[in-house]
Request: fold
Amino acid sequence: GGKDPKVNVSETNQFVKELRKRQVEVKYLLNDNEGHHISDVNNKLAFYKNLETFLANHLNPD
Reply:
């Protein structure tokens, strides 16, 4: 999150930038009002919805 005391947002931004430069698909969710953990219920719901979509797209159901 934007208020994370453990990981600076600029480090995460750089990491995402490098992945995209290497053509790695990245969906980057940043909640400005969160810290290191997701506390807000709406942010949690958004995270899990995105996780569900990611898993559905990348896991083989066979």
Summary: Residues 9-58 form one domain. The radius of gyration is 13 Å. The chain is about 50% helix and 0% strand.
